[in-house]
Design goal:
mainly alpha, 9 helices, 128 residues
Length: 128
């Protein structure tokens, strides 16, 4: 993982420091509270991934940067331009299919984003 300065994205930088300190599933689950109730876990996992995508979109800042990053992550030229020049909010753009294709779950996991569902299953003793 590359180190980011505060100017390059404070939210991502703080999240990466937070994730780097987690070595077992229990610390992050203690932050949210270990529950035997599974229903909110997938929603929390989806929210976390969307929030991370939003942080990347916000970090890229300029349309030219957004387009070049989307192209580098495998989005078509037309879609990258349409999304890169969009004036919609960061939160809205984080849920678009182009962002989900570019920053998919496997890519996010490679960047160090924990999978809350797997951590919950591991903490509950389920095989996953």
């Amino acid at each position: 993982m590359a180190d980011f300065s505060v100017a390059e994205g404070a939210e991502l930088w703080h999240f990466r420091i937070f994730c780097s300190r987690i070595s077992t599933p229990t610390p992050i689950l203690f932050c949210f509270g270990i529950s035997e109730y599974y229903r909110p876990i997938p929603e929390l996992d989806e929210w976390l991934r969307r929030r991370i995508r939003m942080c990347y979109w916000k970090q890229w800042r300029w349309p030219r940067t957004k387009i070049s990053h989307l192209l580098a992550l495998g989005v078509s030229l037309k879609t990258a331009i349409q999304h890169g020049v969009s004036s919609k909010s960061y939160w809205h753009m984080a849920r678009t299919p182009a962002m989900q294709q570019a920053l998919n779950n496997d890519w996010l996991q490679g960047q160090g984003v924990p999978n809350i569902k797997q951590l919950w299953c591991k903490a509950q003793g389920y095989s996953s």
